[in-house]
């Protein structure tokens, strides 16, 4: 089996991140992909961390045995009202258990592949990308995985999910001059049907995560593919497209792996649902690679030397 080198980009999506686990395993073990770099936001940051440490069995065990209480603490409505009205908390629930989970599975282990995660500050409004060399990298993984409003924003900078501004950090990946890019998303990029919200928390989950993430994902991927195609067409006739700063756009082969069906509630950590999502990730990865093979796609175009 020949080796195929690529940068892996992992999107947000809460408990739907189990889909990424199944898809990544097939790409790496069955189809020969080797990751030169991994970039993730939200749940993609958590998956990126253990994949970059090549802790494959540990990551699988984490997902197969994960429980809702391992991620966050729920509260009764009276306690929730007290937290919001009296304690002025910045989210419905507390996801500090998630920080303990990250520390348990990732602290003190070496990184075998360069990796980066994104977080957003509600104070500055800015998106920040941190590499694994950063001393607060694991805290940044926690910040990146914290869905705003649902969970409490963290620290004086009120850090939250990097997916709030960058669901699929494609721009981040391009900055590292990748050989090829593989995106594993947790949604199809289309708005999915869902039951009518039964509570204000359901409204927050649906509007701030499902719908917002789907829209940003679609825009991110569509814009990347559009520019990528223009760059390829320009190169074919000997032209070069340039960015506003004068630097040249470069063509980069991209494969997008995304669900072909609805994966359900992003806070559904039930073991049956997790396994179904993993299996669907495996199926979609195999189908996408088979589609590329049947189309007799040419090998990826190597990056233009800078």
From TrEMBL:
Signal peptide: none annotated. GO terms for molecular function: hydrolase activity. Keywords: Hydrolase, Lipid degradation, Lipid metabolism. It holds the Pfam family Patatin. A motif (DGA/G) lies at residues 161-163. It comes from the Bacteria. InterPro entries: Acyl_Trfase/lysoPLipase, NTE, PNPLA_dom. PROSITE patterns: PNPLA. Coiled coil: none annotated. SUPFAM superfamilies: FabD/lysophospholipase-like. One of its GO terms (biological process) is lipid catabolic process. Residues 8-174 form the PNPLA domain. A motif (GXGXXG) lies at residues 12-17. A motif (GXSXG) lies at residues 40-44. The active site is at 42 (nucleophile), 161 (proton acceptor). The keyword Lipid metabolism applies. Transmembrane segments: none annotated. This is Patatin-like phospholipase family. It comes from Cystobacter fuscus.
């Amino acid at each position: 089996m020949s080796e195929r080198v690529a940068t892996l980009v992992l999107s947000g999506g809460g408990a739907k991140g189990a889909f990424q686990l199944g898809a990544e395993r097939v790409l790496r073990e069955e189809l020969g992909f080797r990751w030169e770099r991994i970039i993730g936001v939200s749940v993609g940051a958590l998956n990126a961390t253990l994949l970059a440490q090549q802790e494959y069995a540990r990551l699988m065990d984490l997902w197969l045995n994960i429980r809702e209480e391992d991620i966050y603490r729920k509260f009764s409505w009276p306690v929730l009202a007290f937290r919001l009205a009296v304690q002025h908390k910045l989210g419905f629930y507390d996801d500090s258990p998630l920080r303990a989970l990250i520390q348990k599975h990732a602290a003190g282990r070496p990184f075998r592949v360069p990796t980066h995660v994104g977080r957003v500050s509600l104070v500055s409004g800015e998106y920040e990308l941190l590499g694994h060399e950063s001393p607060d990298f694991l805290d940044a993984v926690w910040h990146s995985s914290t869905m705003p409003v649902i969970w409490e924003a963290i620290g004086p900078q009120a850090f939250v999910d990097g997916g709030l501004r960058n669901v699929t950090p494609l721009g981040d990946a391009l900055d590292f001059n990748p050989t090829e890019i593989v995106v594993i998303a947790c949604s199809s990029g289309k708005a999915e049907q869902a039951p009518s919200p039964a509570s204000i928390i359901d409204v927050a989950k649906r509007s701030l995560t499902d719908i917002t993430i789907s829209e940003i994902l679609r825009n991110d991927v569509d814009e990347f593919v559009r520019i990528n195609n223009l760059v390829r067409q320009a190169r074919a006739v000997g032209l070069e497209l340039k960015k506003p700063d004068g630097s040249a756009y470069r063509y980069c082969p991209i494969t997008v792996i995304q669900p072909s069906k609805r994966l359900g509630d992003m806070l559904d950590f039930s073991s049956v649902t997790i396994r179904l999502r993993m299996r669907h990730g495996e199926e979609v990865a195999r189908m996408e690679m088979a589609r590329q093979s049947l189309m007799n796609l040419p090998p990826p175009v190597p990056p233009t030397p800078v």
